[in-house]
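Tokens help. Our protein:
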Amino acid sequence: MDLGIAGRRAAVAAASTGLGYASAAALVAEGVQVMLCSSDADRARAAAERLGHGTQAMTVDLTDPDAAAGFVTGAAERMGGLDILVVNGPGPAPGRVSDTALADYQAAIDRSLLAVVGMCLAATPGMRAQGWGRIVAITSLGVRQPYPNLALSNTARAGATGFLRTLAREIAADGVTVNAAQPGLHETNRVRSTLPDPDALSAALATIPAGRLGAPEDFGSVVAFLCSQQAGYLTGAGLQVDGGAYQALI
């Protein structure tokens, strides 16, 4: 299917590896001009070179909300505008509520809530002015059913979800959609680091009807569709991409 976005300009955050990279690759395959970022300059350049097709890279600390907003502003300046924003970033450290200090929450909110807000605020004026835009935030299945041992992530990403839904309502009439792709367990370095032994992996797979970890490439295809011309009437949605792990009716 031709997604109708060839020639569009996209900023894809935290895209040197994992789900961010897979999302950038899916957009590049559709003919989208991509600017990606990473906190590591070498990884950012290497990812852009692998993707090819004129992909550009920036080095950005996405744990800093101002720097995250600056990535979007810089991408728009270098590409002559922005049509698509894929919001992504490093997740907070694991930990239980009972083991997490109050002071730790601010850093989690900076990276997983305020950085999201900053990127969106930087992108939306130009998108609204041109009457077309797509914002897709890579969040987590934890906003639907909180994960054990991820108190900081569950808290901050829930706030980001509320912001995204509110923004979607405010700018839908301007031709700009805002959606979230909520990954379950995928074959990424972060997930593998949380499942360090076969028993942990087996226990995790037992919760997934599909019986396997998700492929990053499959997730990237979902993100690309949410950015498509065909998805223009889909906004304010949180789409779980989890192999059937989420079982609630709503």
